[in-house]
Amino acid sequence: MSIDFTQVKQTPMYICELEKLENNLQILDKVQKESGAKVILALKGFAMHSTFDLVGKYLHGCTASGLHEAKLAREKMNKEVHTYSPAFKEEEIKEIALLSNDIVFNSPSQLLEFKDIVKEVNPDISISLRINPEYSESPVDLYNPCALFSRLGTTKANFNEEVLPFIDGLNFHALCEQDVSALEGVLKAFEQNFGKYISKMKYINFGGGHHITKKGYDVDKLIKVIKDFRSRYNNIEVYLEPGEAVGWETGVLVSTVLDIVDNGMKILILDTSAEAHMPDTLAMPYRAEVRGAAKANEKAFTYKLTGNTCLAGDIMGDYSFDTPLKVGDKIIFEDQIHYTFVKSTTFNGIKLPSLALWDRSKGLKIIKNFGYGDYKQRLS
Ligand SMILES: *Cc1c(COP(=O)(O)O)cnc(C)c1O
């Protein structure tokens, strides 16, 4: 049974459907089993740790972007922890090294600066370097790690061979919501620029941005690309670290209509916010799907959906519905589990949406409610 919204007595609320999450994990597990690659969860995109027992049943661990994510990965999943930061701070490096199985440096200079400290506190740690393949088909520069003047990863020109005796792996991350053909392009550039080093490595990390769980993604082709790569390099270990593909289409953000005003058109004011609760709709930008709604004027009743902050641009967009809406109706935004609550803010003092799980046999379980304390605690 999919979510029964009569059980939702308070809003706003993010609801993750466990069955859908498990379906995604099973697709990722198929990739692991058939290609031999290991998949780890990028916490940056999805960090609902109440689901980590389930996630950890399938995936090999987490990829973290610094101390706090590494701590969460160790505390809540306790499998492999791979930690990458654009730059590490000296005062955090020891703690990060203790928490991590693999530490990924962004530049040869940081790698050479910290390699000894890291090995001293954790002799078993693997060290790798993020490289910039200088090739990406990423749709927008905001999400393009290979854009002009990118700080992310070491380019071929900046690759300092002095690091070679100290590294076990190379990482790249150059995709964003993309299919296998985009990966093939990146891989080709990677092999052209860095191919001579690959056989010296224990593993290569293909990063995230693989849209593996999206309908139509060619999973079998991905498996083949990974297997072919591995066989070219003596069965080298391969990692993938998707975030979005784990949380993709696993749940919703539910909100309630608070008021309807008319200023040239009917405008709904909701108890949620595009700016604070669905930030990528404004940053990417993209239009979130709304359950039962279509584009403006396709159905009989069109409304502008807006947020309850004082930011003029806090607008989700124009949507049309079959029947007129009224105060108290619920508006359900689809696919709001990845890159939403990991980024949400208390901007304007707006309440953070509750976090809930939907289990088809047990129904709705609210994991966490937020309140004034969460707003106040971040300020002084
Ligand atoms: C963001 C990020 C990921 C995850 O990307 P998705 O698009 O969520 O799959 C993986 N690795 C690195 C280094 C990242 O910055």
Describe the 3D structure.
This protein has two domains: 5-14 and 251-336 and 344-376, Beta Barrel (Lyase, Ornithine Decarboxylase, Chain A, domain 1), CATH 2.40.37; 36-247, TIM Barrel. Helices cover 29% and strands 23% of the residues. It contains eleven helices and 18 strands. It has helices spanning 18-35, 52-58, 67-76, 90-99, 108-121, 180-198, 219-232, 244-247, 274-277, 280-283, 372-376; strands at residues 13-17, 38-39, 41-42, 61-64, 80-84, 102-105, 126-130, 169-171, 203-205, 237-240, 251-262, 266-270, 294-295, 301-306, 315-321, 330-334, 354-359, 363-368. β17 and β18 (363-368) form a beta hairpin. The radius of gyration is 22 Å and the shape is globular. The mean pLDDT is 97. Residues 42, 44-45, 63, 84, 173, 176, 207-209, 241-245 line the site of pyridoxal-5'-phosphate.
Write the layout of secondary structure elements.
Elements: E1 13-17, H1 18-35, E2 38-39, E3 41-42, H2 52-58, E4 61-64, H3 67-76, E5 80-84, H4 90-99, E6 102-105, H5 108-121, E7 126-130, E8 169-171, H6 180-198, E9 203-205, H7 219-232, E10 237-240, H8 244-247, E11 251-262, E12 266-270, H9 274-277, H10 280-283, E13 294-295, E14 301-306, E15 315-321, E16 330-334, E17 354-359, E18 363-368, H11 372-376
The protein binds pyridoxal-5'-phosphate.
Pyridoxal-5'-phosphate (PLP) binds at residues 42, 44-45, 63, 84, 173, 176, 207-209, 241-245.
